[in-house]
Amino acid sequence: MKIKLTLLAVALASLSGAAAALDLGKMLEDHIKEELNKDRQTQPAPEAAPDAATPPQSKQKVDLRQLGQTLLTGYSLEEENRIGQQISGNLLGAVPLVRDDNLQNYVNLVGNWVAQQSGRQEITWRFGVLDTEAINAFAAPGGYIFVTKGLYRLLNNEAELAGVLGHEIAHVTGKHHLKLLKQSSLIGALGQAASSKAKDSDQMVQNLIGNGAEIMARRLDKDAEHEADRVGMVFAARAGYDPWGLPSVLQDMAALPAGDKRTSLLYKTHPHPADRLAALGEAVDGRLDAVRGKELADRFYRIR
Amino acid sequence: MKTTLIPAAALVLCVASATAWAAPGTVLRNEKLYSQPSASARVAANVPKGARVEILAKQGGWLRVKAGNSTGWIRLLSVRAGAGGLGGAGVGDVVGAATRRSDPSRVVAVAGLRGLNDEDLKRAQFNADELARMEALGVTAAQARSFARQSGVVAVKVAELPKPQPEQSSSPWGNN
């Protein structure tokens, strides 16, 4: 613990000089202070506890990898939003929203209702249908959820939409992409922060997430996908929908031929639907037999 | 208008309707075929993992399937639709793709589509207008509640699903 605190103090000192003016630098500083306070609270008056005022002995001893894993136990809501905005704006640069406000409104109404069952009420949820025939869906931190027109076309009723959105909402509540960032890009970003190469905070966040919206093309751990299936199915069921919406969509995707170009990116980033169905089957078994929800095929908004 | 669009879309995309599939499928785990879509119904037959079935219909969390000489209801999540078999993204699907390639409706559906690949995503430039549009299209929690109420959708208590055991990996993605 002592080593950890020393490390934090050293890191704080090294960061505050070069990057204090930058938002991300400030974010990191705040994290460091938070961590220090946490340790103070849990450790009753350790005699030799170093604090931020302790002069750093040697800057060369900062291990950025360890620092990253120690510091970013969590992002604040503000940081999460900032990261989500950048990713979403980039994704929308690759593919715009379908120009159909009735469709977008409908998806927002259904999605917001499902998200209200997720327990993260502090998030401002936004949903959008992307104008591409690719079959896919995306979630960015901060509550930005995207479904492609190609996937939307596969849907038969509102319960299936609720299931798909539930899966993506579960990625946000599970902070899966934030964990991915923490694992892979953080070290580089910390380096950037320390050396103050980045011009402004937008650039800092962009450095954190990588090129464009490429984080959306990265594969999450398959356990994260299976977790999102389980949690998403439960969110949809809690919202009062037939719980079999998501499994039905997975069945429709499983029935598509492997060579279907609309699914090429989907299968780069997700386990095959057959594997997802099998994993979900293990978890569900007879547990949802008594749940009765609505499919709402009549109210489902159909697109051309 | 809607009624004419729905079957047309289903035909073009070759998406089986919810009630009449008649599609190939593979059993994902050792399972029972029930005489009715209920686990308390009479067991008509046992089907082993890997068995090929013909999917005849879907009802809630159940599929009506033909397996060998037996017909009955099996849990939706115990079968995968499609010709790919157990293999997931493996060998089975290559076979499935090869057998489906001759299906003309598929070819129509796949040709000339605007896709989205990882290169598109990597090259993407921030689009502030489109993001603002998305922000503006958001709805309030009250609006969503009201919309749910309109169709009698009511929130219910449903317990979390357990992570299946045994653990397949010790990754940090566990339940939060």
Quickly count the helices of chain A: 14
The helical percent of chain B reads: 25-40%
Gap between N and C termini of chain B, in Å?
A: 46 Å
Q: Mean of the pLDDT scores of chain A?
A: 79
Number of strands of chain B: 7
Going by helix content, strand content and strand pairing, the class of chain A is: mainly alpha
| Strand/helix succession of chain B | HEEEEEEEHHHHH
State the secondary-structure class of chain B.
Answer: alpha+beta
Task: Say how many strands of chain A there are.
Answer: 3
Give the CATH architecture of the domain at 18-87 in chain B. Roll
- The percent range for strand residues of chain A is under 5%
Radius of gyration of chain A: 22 Å
The named CATH superfamily of the domain at 18-87 in chain B? SH3 Domains
How does the SSE layout of this entry go?
The complex is a heterodimer of chains A (304) and B (176).
Chain A: H1 2-19, H2 23-42, H3 64-71, H4 77-94, H5 101-115, E1 126-130, E2 137-140, E3 144-148, H6 149-154, H7 158-173, H8 176-184, H9 186-195, H10 201-209, H11 222-238, H12 245-254, H13 264-269, H14 273-284
Chain B: H1 2-13, E1 23-27, E2 31-34, E3 43-47, E4 52-59, E5 62-67, E6 70-75, E7 79-81, H2 91-100, H3 104-110, H4 118-123, H5 128-137, H6 141-150
Antiparallel strand pairs in B: 1-4, 1-7, 2-3, 4-5, 5-6
Briefly say what this structure is.
The complex is a heterodimer of chains A (304) and B (176). Chain A is mainly alpha-helical.
Structural notes for this entry:
The complex is a heterodimer of chains A (304) and B (176). Chain A has 304 residues and is mainly alpha-helical. Chain A is 57% helix and 5% strand. Chain A folds into 2 domains: 1-73, no CATH class; 79-178 and 215-284, no CATH class. Chain A is built from 14 helices and 3 strands. The longest helix of chain A is centred in the N-terminal third of the chain and has 20 residues, at 23-42. Chain A is globular, with a radius of gyration of 22 Å. Residues 1-22 and 39-63 of chain A have low confidence and may be disordered. By secondary structure, chain B is of the alpha+beta class. Chain B has a domain at 18-87: SH3 type barrels. In chain B, 31% of the residues lie in helices and 21% in strands. Chain B has helices spanning 2-13, 91-100, 104-110, 118-123, 128-137, 141-150, and strands at residues 23-27, 31-34, 43-47, 52-59, 62-67, 70-75, 79-81. A 5-stranded antiparallel β-sheet of chain B has the order 6-5-4-1-7, with no helix packed on it. Chain B has a two-stranded antiparallel ribbon with strand order 2-3. In chain B, a hairpin with a 2-residue loop joins strand 4 (52-59) and strand 5. The longest helix of chain B is centred in the first third of the chain and has 12 residues, at 2-13. Chain B is extended. Residues 1-18, 89-113 and 167-172 of chain B have low confidence and may be disordered. Chains A and B meet through helix 4, helix 5, strand 1, helix 6 and helix 8 of A and helix 1, strand 7, helix 2, helix 3 and helix 4 of B.
